Amino acid sequence: xxxxxxxxIPPQVMTRTVGNEMVILDLASGTYFGLDPVGAxxxxxxxxxxxxxxxxxxxxxxxEVTREALEADALRLAGELEAQGLxxxxxxx
Amino acid sequence: xxxxxxxxxxxxxPFHTWxxxxxxxxxxxxxxxxxxxxxxxxxADFQVAADAxxxxxxxxxxxxxxxxxxxxxxxxxxxxxSKLGKLVFHASAVEIGAGAVAFVGExxxxxxxxxxxxxxxxxxxxxxxxxxxxxxxxxFAALPSHPSIxxxxxxxxxxxxxxxxxxxxVHYTTKARFLADENLAFCETPRPLRRVYFLGDGGSxxxxxxxxSPAETLLEWVKHSFLLDIEELPxxxxxxxxVAALAKQPIHYRLDYPRRFEDLAAVRQxxxxxxxxxxxxxxx
Lengths: 93, 284
Fold this sequence. Notes:
The structure holds two protein chains of two kinds. By secondary structure, chain A is an alpha+beta fold. Chain A has a single domain, classed as Alpha-Beta Complex (Outer Surface Protein A, domain 3). In chain A, the strands form two sheets. Chain A has a three-stranded antiparallel beta sheet. Chain A has a two-stranded antiparallel ribbon with strand order 1-5. The N and C termini of chain A lie close together (about 10 Å). By secondary structure, chain B is α+β, with helices and mostly antiparallel strands. In chain B, strand 4 and strand 5 form a beta hairpin. In chain B, helix 4 packs across helix 5. Chain B is globular and about 55 Å long. Chain B starts with 15 loop residues before the first strand and ends in a 9-residue tail after the last helix. The interface between A and B is medium-sized, with 14 and 20 residues.
């Protein structure tokens, strides 16, 4: 997983926001995953076809956090979501 | 119900199966001619029409009519109702005050034992499993189902009077099914859903009760849903929407306690007191 990678969301993956959390559900496999508000924002940007680096650029404008911490969180989250089959990753390198 | 016959091989593999924790196959889900064939190996087949409006049961020879009826009530009917757009869950429910309290959990977590414990103590039960929940007013209602409770023999010995009415035994389980009567009181009308308790695995050393977030609640309800066709994406999406609405109700809790029959009275008292509190609108 690299920051130049692009992510897409498979069509059978749904999300619902309940309270201040987002729940992701893969309707095909039954896999589900919960996201806090920051994770939900990353997810929303993933759905726009941006690279992880571009997602971090946008997040830095919205949150008071260091780039290093944000990139680490984004890469970790993307790795977890890919491992669960909830996103697809395309490497542009 | 059709005449008994041997189970013919099915040409295509099932699109879904239910298996027991030890890996034993319990149910096969097949599609055929626009409908569904649900097979319980060595017991019965059930043909469900595509619109789920008709069901035909075909027992295997030597399997009793009672067994087939039991399978229909406890396994097929909840799936059919889910196909018809109902919310159906692996949950029991009892009446407390003017409302209902649900106990949600997989097999073995104690939802039937709790329901029976309340029912023999004066709080009527609505169901021991396959709880149907539907929107009602500004909240949701729990619907009653078949007036019976299935229990393993240890729960029976601890809770059920010797003279209790029971259904004929079935082939595939040693659980006994007890029929509602004056000793096992049944509530036959829907009740507003006031509290939902997701049951822990019994590993706690004392009673533990805490509120769940809406997201935790949504995941728990999804895990414990009856769904006939897990590949029917529009129906699943609708189900997800309905469950998300239910999960927003501030009535969901995790409950765990040591599974000791001698402690059930105390567990009931805690639940009674908790369920009669005003709605807990505090956030986590």
